[in-house]
Amino acid sequence: MLTLDQAIDRTTDITTAARKAGADAADALYYCDASTSVDVRLGVLEDVQRAEGEQIGLRVFVGQRSASVSTSDFEPERLTALVARAVAMAREAPEDRFAGLAPEDRLLDGDAPDLDLDDHSDVDPAALRASALACEDAARAVDGVTNSEGGSASHNRVRLALATSHGFARAYGQSSHAISASVLAGSGSNMQRDYDWHSARYLADLDTPEAIGRSAGERAVARMSPGELPSKAMPVVFDPRVGGSLIGHLIGAISGSAITRKTSFLLDAAGRQVFARGISIIEEPHRLRGLASRPFDGEGLPTQRTAIVDDGVLAGWLLDSASARQLDLAPTGHASRGTHGSPGVSTGNLHIAPGEVSRAALIADIKDGVLVTELIGHGVNGVTGDYSRGASGFRIVDGEIAGPVAEFTIAGNLKDMYASLVAADDLVFRYGTNVPSLRCDAMTVAGA
């Protein structure tokens, strides 16, 4: 694993070499990932894995033609050959009048913000094993838990550097720690599974293994002896653990590629009321120790706090440079890329601003509804907005949680769902995308 300074030097050198080899412009991304994970089951060590890999990806432009190549072989002669091959490939590629580096005047200027993403730790496998065992033991100790799919603990470190031939060169590192457990409760046809997990940049910020395991066990036991739901229209409340997926569908629909290809159900929605009033969706890529924080985007543009939705109104699209040129707009600092191919779009830490009512108040007037705690499948059409997913959770009767339910489907259209969304006040920052409990009245449930 290179140091950050070494990674910057390596990416800068290869873009300089590309220019000397005949490229009009180039950028390079260095990415290194080192991880250790330990899995246990029923109190016995099952697996220990250690993986480390580093790659460098080079993208070159010859006029309006481009090509991308990557390698994990950093020997000088191999890199020289890689550069020559990339330039030769670009000369034979079709022209793309929207291709090119990000506008030079929009690049991050000055030092990248320090977001405190790396605790510089190197966790011993024995410590990971102890955490995984403690997590699973706590889950299995919950009364009613009868079996286990296992516990795990992991540690990961990443270093990333980006350099462009028009002057950008920055790098950052990040660490992450995670613990999880998955267990079963009951037996026979009444066997139910659930899990819990936590991930954090700093080991000191991670929930204790015992707390995570106990939560996994209690979740599994709470799902025992599920009932059935009738098939009809009813209010659906999304638990915070699954509600973030609704925001994921929005991000896909407003990304530059979806808009330029006209494959989005929100094609004409920029600047319009898409969500119910009171709903605001905020991106905070500079949150300290955030799971989705980043100081610059995949093209070297600065990232910043953005109100993607403000009081229900969609601000606009999320654009990399190529899609911005195609739409005759400016890039928004949302480019994301790996060592292969062209940039796409991604976001930093997202959250829905909390509402003004408690979760109890949110469901208090629901005569017959359902609280969804797990979603199954991927039945979402990004072109039409049609939404249909398997689910499980808890029935709501006369404003109270009435017991577990399973094997039902919730369906609707995301346009209608967004327009009826109401947020509770129970927002907790725990994931890369965080939401409070969300109520949606524009849905149909297909049960028994």
What does this molecule look like?
This protein has 448 residues and is an alpha+beta fold. The strands form 4 sheets. The protein has an 8-stranded mixed sheet with strand order 7-21-17-16-15-8-20-18. Strands 3-2-1-4-5-6 form a 6-stranded antiparallel sheet. Strand 1 and strand 2 form a beta hairpin. The longest helix has 17 residues. The protein is globular, with a radius of gyration of 24 Å.
Note the beta-strand portion: 25-35%
The overall average pLDDT, rounded, is: 96
Radius of gyration over all CA atoms, rounded: 24 Å
Shape by Cα distribution: globular
Instruction: Tell me the total number of β-strands.
Output: 21
- In helices, the fraction of residues equals 10-25%
End-to-end Cα distance: 55 Å
Structural class based on helices, strands and sheet pairing = alpha+beta
Number of helices: 9
Order of helices and strands: HEEEHHEEEHEEHHEEEHEEEHEEEHEEEE
List unreliable stretches of 5+ residues: none
The description of the largest β-sheet is: 8 strands, mixed
How many distinct folded domains?
Answer: 2
Biggest sheet strand line-up? 7-21-17-16-15-8-20-18
What's this, in brief?
Residues 35-90 form the Metalloprotease TldD/E N-terminal domain. The chain has helices spanning 4-20, 76-92, 125-140, 209-222, 240-253, 256-260, 321-327, 359-363, 414-420; strands spanning 25-41, 44-62, 65-71, 145-164, 169-185, 192-200, 232-233, 236-238, 281-283, 306-310, 313-314, 335-336, 344-345, 350-352, 368-376, 386-397, 400-413, 422-423, 433-434, 438-440, 444-446.
